[in-house]
Structures are given as C-alpha cells and as structure tokens.
Amino acid sequence: MAKPLVAFYWCASCGGCEEAVVDLAEDILNVADAVEFRLWPVAMDFKYKDIEAMPDKSIAVSCINGAIRTEEQEYLAKLLRQKSQLVVAFGSCAHLGGIPGLANVSNRAEIFETAYKLTPSTVNPEGIYPKTVTETPYGKLKLPEFFNTVKTLDQTVDVDYYIPGCAPPPDLILKAITAILENNLPPKGSVIASEKALCETCPRNESKPDKLVIKDIKRISMVKADPEKCFLAEGILCMGPATRGGCGERCINANMPCRGCFGPTKQVKDMGARFLSALASIIDIDDEEEIKKVADSVPDPIGLFYMYSLPSSILKRKKGG
Ligand code: SF4
Ligand code: SF4
C-alpha cells in the first residue's frame, strides 16, 4: 500500500521545532517507516518545483512550523495548503506567532535600521538595506519581501490542527502523528493538548493558598525560588493560570515559571489580557504610589504577557506600524 506523503516546512522560527521531531528518538524510525517525506528542507533536498508539480491534495499532511514573516514563507504556506489534505500548525510560532511575533512591537523600517545600521558590529555608512530586487551586471537578484507584520499560520491559510509548544513535546507529537495515521482525529480546529489550564495539573498547585494575594512582584532572576511552592503565591509571575496544559510542566519542573508557550485555553481569547486581569485581582495594595511601583517592576509587559502570542492577540501589533 502506498505510504501517506508528508511535508515539513520551516518558516520564521528558531529551528527548535525541527529538533523536536528528532527528539522522538527511536520512535522516529516508526514514523519514517509509516510515511514518505515529500518536503523537509532541514533534512532532505527536495525542490519547490517538485511540490508545485504535485496534484492538489496529494500530500496527506503538511506540518508547518514558524510564523509568517516573508513572501517566501507565505508562498510555501499557500502552496502546501493547496497540495495537502491536512495542514498542521506545529509549535508556538505557527500557532500564535511565538517569539518572532514580538517583532510586531516594531516595524520593518525600524528592524532594518537596527539590524543593518545600528548594531555595534555593523559597518554600513551608506545605509544600504535589503531590497526585493537588485540590478547587477549579471542580472536581477531577488529576495523575498520582508513583511511589516508577523502573522500566525492561520492568519495566512486555513489550518486543520494545532500542536502547541515551544517546542512541542515528543509525546504530543507522537500522539498527533498516531491520530493522523490512524485517522482518529479530533474536530477540525482542535489544539492537540489538554483542555485544562496548566495550574490544574501543576504539582505546585496544592501549595497555592485558597485566597491568593501578593504585595510585590519578584523577578525570577533576582530570587531563589522555592522548588515546592507555587510561583505566583511567592510573587513570581507565572502564566500557568492563563495557559493550556499538556506540556508536562516542563518549565515548572526546572524551577522556572511558565511563560505561556502552549497558548490560551479554549475559553480565553487573549492570554495576556487574561493574565493581567488575574494579576490585578491578586495584588493586595491600595496606595497608588505603591501600585505604580509594582507595575513598574515589570520592565517589559508585552514581552512577558504576550511572549508567545502577540500576533494572535487582540492587539496583534503596534498601531501605526
Ligand atoms: S501559577 Fe504556576 S506554579 Fe502556580 S500552580 Fe499555576 S502553573 Fe503552578
Ligand atoms: S511550563 Fe509553560 S512555557 Fe514551559 S513548556 Fe509548559 S506551557 Fe510552555
């Protein structure tokens, strides 16, 4: 019997999602046995023209990681959508925008200025910036357009399923692959992870007092966190109450607070706003000066509350950019 054809593609991301596939360890051999790869640029040399020549919907599933930042990424996402029966947003950046999505606090002009002029290691007195077309004596050189705004995968193409996480844990990847291979899929649009908030399965939840109140906010880098106690109860910001569970509490077990890479639970529309409102309800201070002091103790609120989700949030990006 012909094996199902599979594509993996890497957009704006760090490459961790590709490594997460390798983290399947020996299980990757079973996956490699069960499917036939048709595109996986990080591991195998396929050409875009080979994909363009395939009949529509001939690929069983395309797993796309990374946010959409450039014209080339947008083109490949649309091409794979056309050629695939299923498209899976693989990892936080494809799902929510991820860390690359934090660039939406800036715009293309500012990013180019920083990257190609202002960094201490750059020497560029003529202010030459990348262009989509450059005339040379040998012909035109083309680069894909760098968009002003970072988008999630589902802001670009229709997405069937989401595997969350930065990067997705191997057990979740295997669960998703098995569900696809056995045609035992949840409803379209599902996030393949827990429906509960991370706090509900967190081993530190029991140490959380019934009425949670804090008087100040401590930065994890400035304190020695008690490995048994709930971070929030200690005044250390932890996104667990607003984050979907299913990651195996990876950060918590390493004595680091959750930063929200699994994204919001189904009921939460905007995880940064949800966490802010949860935080406001537990800060027990009346004095305005003191409240300002606590607010000022979070130096980068967007970077913290929307670390993985800015493009998918209500804010989406800095306005006027
Ligand atoms: S706030 Fe963080 S540490 Fe506390 S129970 Fe929730 S996930 Fe665990
Ligand atoms: S604890 Fe939070 S940030 Fe860490 S892996 Fe889990 S969901 Fe992601």
Automatic annotation (TrEMBL):
Leader sequence residues: none
GO molecular function term, any single one: oxidoreductase activity
Pfam family for this entry, one: Oxidored_q6
Span of domain NADH:ubiquinone oxidoreductase-like 20kDa subunit: 14-179
Domain of life of the native organism: Bacteria
Keywords assigned by UniProt, alphabetized: Oxidoreductase
Protein name: Oxidoreductase
